[in-house]
Each structure stands twice: as structure tokens, then as C-alpha cells.
Hints:
SH3 type barrels, 6-stranded antiparallel β-sheet, thiol protease
Amino acid sequence: MSDARLHPDPALCLERRAAQVTAALCDLCRGPGGKRDRQLLYGDLVTILSERDGWSYLQAEKDGYCGHVRSAALGPVQKATHYVSAPASHAYAAADFKSPDLIGLSLNSRVAVTDHSGRFCETPVGFIPEMHLTPLSAPATDPTEVAARLLGTPYLWGGNSRWGIDCSGLVQAALHACALPCPGDSDLQETQLGTLRASGGDFRRNDLLFWKGHVALVTDARTLIHATANVMAVTFEPIAEAIARIEAAGDGPVTAHRRL
């Protein structure tokens, strides 16, 4: 059976039209008005496959994920030049931090910089502080360092932003900021990312540890970072404590240790 997350429903494929997300953040739902599976950020590219009653069925370019998004959150493609490399930022009405803020943008949102004004970059959504943006040609190089930028972000099932993120969303955000491909869910990450390592230790920075329905990034030989419902936030945790706690809670042992 094909995975509906990654393979479009032929019955809903009535067109193919390129678009991008123009809302700061939108839910990618299993059905129109249904459960959130993941989220899309401003500037994410998509292919619209059909549209009905204010909902667009689409496939996201960044990970192939299929689902339904409110059509009002989509617009024409604008060639992005930069991505938000800060945990979050604002676009302002003018090149002045005292001017009205127009939209909030999360880490990895993509924007088209059209001009510069002092310490601000001009974009179609407003003026964004230059220090919060990085050219797409200069991705980050350390996924764990990117994940740490989101320390304290609230846990949100299916979340992909600074305003709420889950375990697989954190890993995807960290890898995408480094221009590394990454699927959206932990079960897909477990089979597609890196190479499998023998269990029992030898943990290195940027290794991935998987449990049933959970994933974490290793920061050093003794510590990991993850978005966990245990504290409802992105947090550091000793590896040994996390392994013992998760198993004691009934969620089983580590299912895979993979190295990027």
C-alpha cells in the first residue's frame, strides 16, 4: 500500500500548479478541516493538485508531504534569496524597529530580498533585520547548533515552527537549515536518514536516536536535544536519563541509532 503522506491521491490530482506559502504558518491537514499532520512556513514551495471549497490539496516541495491547506495561505511563487536563520523574526513596515510589525516569521522561512536599507533587508512582506537572514547559498553546517536555537520552543504535535514544534519537526528544521534533505515524520526519518549504527553507545554530535514515535539529536557523548511532551518544550536531556525515562514510561527502548 502506498503511503498517502508522500504519494498524491490520483482522484484528487486534477491540476499541477506551482505556488508558495504566503501565510506566516499554516497547517497541512489530512483532509479539509481535518487533523494537522505537519505545518508549512512562509516561502515553502508547493504543487497545488486540486482546489475545492477554500482548500487546496497539494504536495510540499521540501519533503514531498501531501495534504490539504487553506487556499488563502497560498500565492504566486517569488524566487527566494534568503532564509530566516534566527529562531524567529519580524517584517516591519519600514526600515525601523519602531515601525509596525507586519508578520512574524519562523526559522527557515524563505524570503526574496529586493533591496537593503541600513540594517534591514527589504522583502515583499516588509523590512526584516539583516542579522536575522542568511543567503540560501550559505546554509548552516551543524544541525545540533540549529536545533539549539529553538531551545524552549513549546511542544506542538505536528508543529514545524518557533511557535510550536514536535520531535520530527525539530530534526527537520535543523537539517533543512543545513540544506540537508529530511522527511517530516520520525518513522520516515528512521528509514531514510544517515547510516545505522550498532546500539550501545559511541554517541557523536549530530547522531540521531529513535524510539517508537520519537527522535532526538545527539549533542555530545552524554547529551541530546529533542522536542518532548515530557516537558512540553525543546530541551537538553542526558542520554542515559532519556533512555531510562522513555522505557519506564512504556514507550520501549531505542529502536535505532543513525549517523548523518
